[in-house]
Structures are given as C-alpha cells and as structure tokens.
Amino acid sequence: MKFPIIAYGDSVLRKKAVDIPKDYPELDVLIANMFETMYGAHGVGLAAPQIGLSIRLFVIDATSFAEDEPALKDFKKVFINAQIIEETGEKWVFNEGCLSIPEIREDISRQDTVKISYYDEKWNHHEEIFNGLAARVIQHEYDHIEGKLFTDKLSPLRKTMLKNRLDSISKGLVKVEYKMKFPSVKKGRR
C-alpha cells in the first residue's frame, strides 16, 4: 500500500521521533509499505515522519547510485531506533532533494562518514560506519527522525529566497506524480 507523503509545513516533520518497541504492531507490513511508497515516488530513502508516523524508522535503497559508487549495488536497508554516534571526515556538497519538499533541490554540505547504531527489520543490532553517498542518504533520513529537514542547512538568505516556494508546497500548489498530504489544504481537496 502506498502512503501519501506528508508535505513541508506539517508539524509531524518537526517532531523528534520516538523509539519503537520490538512488538510494534505489523512492523513488517509497515516497512514493506514504506518501500512501496518510496519506490512509487522515485525516492532513495523514506522516514516514518514523512508518512505521518513520529517513530524512529527509515528505509533506504541507494542502489540507483551504484553507477557512481559500485559499493551501493545492493544497498537496501531498514534502520530502526537509529542513533548517529559520530559524523567525521571531509565536508562535501551534494545536490539534495526530498519527497516532502518536491521541486526544490539544493546543494547541501555534510561530512562524508557516519557511524550509526541501529536495528534492522529482524531486530539484529548493528553499529556500522558508512561513507560517501550511503552516509549522505543515511544522514538525510536520520535528520527526518530528529525533526530536521535539508532546508535547515541552508543559509538564511537562501531560506528567504525559497520561502514563497516552500509556502506553496505546504498549500498543495505543486505538481507531483505521487500522493501527498498537504498541511494547509482542507480535506476533500487533492
């Protein structure tokens, strides 16, 4: 089942998400639906807050980046109750977008290495180090469960320049090929 993706401006995108228990109801179904939603929107990552759930869960499939980084050939992962332990390395800029903020892409600077603790979909614990594009996608999705968006990393001037476009997104004044839920749109529209 594909969920509508929550648009910029909704308060759920600004909440720090809570850990989920091992007995979270129908977690496997939720994870499968999150992957289906992400693929339907042509994304490489999706966090639970983006579908309206303020829980510490995100999914990633970065295999589309395998041409640039062959190590990502089979990079499909589930991150439950993730905690970034450390971000290190050189800062580098990459043009990021977000399914919750369609039609806006910006150059974002992030460190190239991340050490993260998380559980996978079978509740196996991992503490791993990722770098390059894998680290970037993880950092982007992790920001979502921390109540942050990639636009928060922009300069005040750039944020001001994007304000009208961001307001338009929250009002549903954007064309997308996937279902979205807009905070400023009355029920029954879109």
Short note summarizing the structure:
By secondary structure, the chain is of the alpha+beta class. It has three helices and seven strands.
Q: Can you tell me about this structure?
A:
By secondary structure, this protein is of the alpha+beta class. It is 23% helix and 32% strand. The strands form two sheets. The protein has a five-stranded antiparallel beta sheet with strand order 2-3-4-5-6, sandwiched between helices. A two-stranded parallel sheet has the order 1-7. The longest helix is centred in the last third of the chain and has 15 residues, at 156-170. 30% of the residues are buried.
Radius of gyration, CA atoms, in whole angstroms: 16 Å
Number of strands: 7
Q: State which percent range the strand residues make up.
A: 25-35%
The string of secondary-structure elements, in order, is: EHEEEEEHHE
- Helix content bin: 10-25%
- Note the gap between the termini: 18 Å
Mean pLDDT: 95
Low-confidence stretches: none
Structural class: alpha+beta
Strands across the major sheet, in which order? 2-3-4-5-6
Supply the number of helical segments. 3
Overall form: globular
Largest sheet: 5 strands, antiparallel
